[in-house]
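Good morning C.,

I know you're traveling, so I'll keep this short. The sequence:
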Amino acid sequence: MEEDNLPNAINFLLENNESSSSSDYNNDAISNSSVSTDEDQNQFLENDWFQEDLLFPLLQLLLNGRRREHVQNFLNVVHAKSNVEFREDFRLSRPTIYMLLESLETSGFIPTHEFGKEEKPAELCLLMTLWFLSNKEPHRTLSNLFDISLSSVFRIICRVINWLITLVPDVITWPKGNHIIRISRGFEEVAGIRNCVGAIDGSHIYINKPEENSRIYFNRKQCYSILLQAVTDCNTRFISVYCVVIRDRIMMFEC
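The tokens, ready to paste straight into the viewer:
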């Protein structure tokens, strides 16, 4: 009962269905088919080849679904990727990611204890989280793809994102001194805009209806959201990120 035979089973049923529907319009088509009588058809359906290679695999697919596809030796697969493929998958260059990896390994956010259940290496945790952020994959897909339990996927992503948040104050900073002049000149060269230090925009981040003060989060698009505001420099690098949070009916900005 190999899964490779499933396409054959499906094709057979489709062909049988087409021949059945066409028989309403042309009875001669039935007489020309290989299964021309009820007796021959019954013998064909009872054939071992049909049952073992077509019928049983199809029933298995309907009852259990397809087998989950897992990436074997995920890190080895990633290491074999070209620099172009690597950047397409994770949206960052290799040097940048492995520079971040050194910081993650010493951050304490990824457990390194030797007792209990074996922990996932920091490299796998970082790459899986970047895959999640870059490709918008649901947790269940990541669980199936990388052969990691659903709870572990959720826990790993939370740990890595919490670690990334700790880097924000050192990475996303408002320009000062000569940096302001360089950004201003950059905007003038790129867009012809003088005396500009940032491009600003905002976005609604959709959320479930809050249990408290839900009316405050209900926006003009007739759904619930929080507001995100971001400013970038002339090289599209974030220099400011703010999210509007409601606390005790007071609107606050948090970086």
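Safe travels,
E.
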